[in-house]
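User:
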Amino acid sequence: MDDASMVGLMGRVTGTVGPGLVGEVIVRVRGGAEHFLAYAATGTDRIEQGTVVMVVEHLPPRTVYVTAAYDS
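Assistant: Predicted structure:
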């Protein structure tokens, strides 16, 4: 899967994403669901477990930068 095809995909946080933390998200890709290491796109946001997120950048093979998909 190339970098551009991951951008814009939705996922769910399975391990808190935030400053000083390497979080984890699950994203539906390639006909299934895969886990990726995750960082907050802004670098200062804390995104709690269960939050729906959007991938804004993908660093192959398994790292993504995400932002919350909806305002709370």
